Amino acid sequence: MIRMFMSRKRVSLCCYGCILFCICFSLGSCINTKEVAYFNNIPDSAVRSLRQLQPPPAIIQINDILEIKVGGENEKTVQYINQYFSGTNNSNSATGGALQVIVDLNGNIELPKIGKLKLAGLTRDAARDTITNAYKEYLLEPIVAVKFGNFRFSVLGEVKAPGNFSIVSEKVNIFEALAQAGDLTQFAERNKIKIIRDINGKREILSLNLIDSSILNSPEYYINRYDVIYAEPKNVKVVTENFQRTATYIATVASVLALVLLLFRN
Q1: pTM score, whole prediction
Q2: How buried is residue 191: exposed, middle or buried, by Cβ count under 10 Å (0-12/13-18/19+)?
Q3: Confidence band of 18 (pLDDT split at 50, 70, 90)
Q4: DSSP structure string for 189-231
Q5: What percent of the chain has pLDDT over 70?
Q6: Residues 188 and 231 sit within 8 Å (Cβ to Cβ)
Q7: Which of 120, 148, 176 is the C-terminal boundary of a domain?
Q8: Are 68 and 145 contacting, i.e. CB atoms less than 8 angstroms apart?
Q9: Does residue 228 share a domain with residue 170?
Q10: 180, 155 Cβ separation under 8 angstroms
């Protein structure tokens, strides 16, 4: 009788121990709210002026889609060039009669009457001037407009909806980019956000700290086209996932022990 009582007591203690372990581990794995807040070193009651930031100059890159319009000040000039633009497969009404061209692997585009023209590595204004000068041989006082047809970037890691994104804009900041991916999860290292940047073969990795308000005045506040943004996970996520697996086993064992305890009581 004493042995049976002692056995029941041991089983009960095991069950209670398993439950207590789960509760303690859960409390210990909680995340500090300061670690998940953006620029948390700004005083709550303060109004802080931010300096004006200019987005980085948009450099034309391989695989860029450009929308180009060419015309002139007199009607004959406009009609002359438009007959070539309207006759190409890459021109459509959706782009307002603009010619859509893709920068090839050699950094060139192809234009009516001009042929191949190297634009990779130029800013949009420099590309406009290059195209304008090229058309001066054929047109009287040519007027050229150049627009980027895409702003693509990727967001990976600890975000709610990772993926590739393409938006109609020429200026995107880091927070807008993360918002496209559903924002960071609670397990993201907000002070270790990586940006992998490739501009015509020149690659670099940037590290951003979104907890510090200095990011709001940083040149890296704006991202570039084709940037890859990676949100590194916290160590606590690995611990939590391991704990969840362990807790499953513990819960199974506890259930078996509880069943055995009930059988002993009966």
Answers
A1: 0.70
A2: middle
A3: low
A4: EEEEEEEEEEETTEEEEEEE-SSSGGGGGSGGGB--TT-EEEE
A5: 64
A6: yes
A7: 148
A8: yes
A9: yes
A10: yes
Greatest Cα-to-Cα distance within the chain, rounded to the nearest angstrom: 112
Q: What CATH number is associated with residue 75?
A: 3.30.1950.10
| 55 domain residue, yes or no | no
Q: 5-14, 57-66, 191-200 — which is least confidently predicted?
A: 5-14
CB atoms within 10 A of CB 204: 9
104: tokens are 């090839």
CA distance to 45, 96, 217, per residue, from 229 (Å) = 32, 33, 19
Region of poorest pLDDT, from 48-57, 63-72, 159-168, 248-257: 248-257
User: What one-character DSSP code corresponds to residue 56?
Assistant: P
Q: Is residue 255 part of a domain?
A: yes
Can you read off the two tokens belonging to residue 123?
């800013």
Domain limits for position 27: 2-31+237-265
Cα–Cα distance, 232 to 187 (Å, whole number): 8
For residue 30, give Cα distances in angstroms to 153, 192, 239. Answer: 32, 20, 11
For residue 101, is it left (φ>0), alpha (ψ between -120 and 50) or beta? beta
Tell me, what CATH number does 181's domain have? 3.10.560.10
The single residue listed with the structure tokens 């002359």 is: 80
Query: Is residue 52 within 8 Å of 222, Cβ to Cβ?
Result: no
**109 class by beta-carbon count within 10 Å (0-12 exposed, 13-18 middle, 19+ buried):** buried
Q: How far apart are CA 87 and CA 79, in angstroms?
A: 12
